[in-house]
Amino acid sequence: MAAISMRNIVKRYGDGYQAVDNVSLDIADGEFVILVGPSGCGKSTLLRMIVGLEDITSGDMLIGGERVNQKAPRDRNLAMVFQNYALYPHLSVYENIAFPLRLKKVPDAEVKERVTEAANLLQLTEHLDRKPAHLSGGQRQRVAMGRAIVRQADAFLFDEPLSNLDAKLRGQMRTEIARMQKQLGTTTVYVTHDQTEAMTLGDRIAVLRRGVLQQVGSARQLYEEP
Ligand code: ADP
Ligand code: ADP
């Protein structure tokens, strides 16, 4: 059974603009899929429909085999990582990572265990007492990832997470995200307009153009064969 299954997904915005046109895609459990395509092709819209931040005009969205079209984002158990990190400036790194667990009233001991584990994985252990203002861009991005990790979600959804970083840091973070995903084995959908990112990350690439899914395959299948 696919972890995430999109069946004939269509999105028409209120003004009639069709941003996503009949997209069908199955994402396997533990798979890392990159959604790539030029700006405006509908990547973000598709990702937002997976998370539940955007209504689906027609088609079915299944998560773990269950139809979630009508389910609120909080009931989908997915973790989204945005490019602007959305960290709380007045909270420490520890509390920023712990935040989703605090909302769920997870007991302190378990919060500590999960935050410590995520911090180790992301090399943030030394920075737990700091405020976001005292972190580098890459460290802030790691905190945002830590927050996704502690939720033990069924899938990670990344929306252009590295676009605010410089080229060198982007390269480092790419490696880090790939390592983290392999280590955790969590199903991941990663949106980018950057072809290098698409080719170096992930198991499969899905190419979107003007709302239509044009090709799906490994980097090798899509970019190296004649
Ligand atoms: P991408 O993430 O690939 O850049 P988006 O999914 O953000 O693309 O947008 C796809 C298309 O839908 C774009 O043409 C965009 O202008 C349009 N669009 C996005 N959000 C809305 C909205 N709320 N209302 C109308 N059109 C929108
Ligand atoms: P208690 O047993 O009273 O929860 P802890 O020392 O475990 O005492 O933690 C107290 C609070 O301090 C925690 O709820 C958490 O918010 C925060 N905290 C715990 N460990 C760290 C840490 N390594 N860095 C920053 N804050 C922490």
From TrEMBL:
Where the record annotates domain ABC transporter, the positions are 4-226
Q: Does the keyword Aminoacyl-tRNA synthetase apply?
A: no
GO terms of molecular function: ATP binding
The name on file for this protein is ABC transporter ATP-binding protein
Q: Which domain of life is it from?
A: Bacteria
The record's keywords, sorted A to Z, are: ATP-binding, Cell membrane, Membrane, Nucleotide-binding, Translocase, Transport
Organism expressing this protein natively: Paractinoplanes rhizophilus
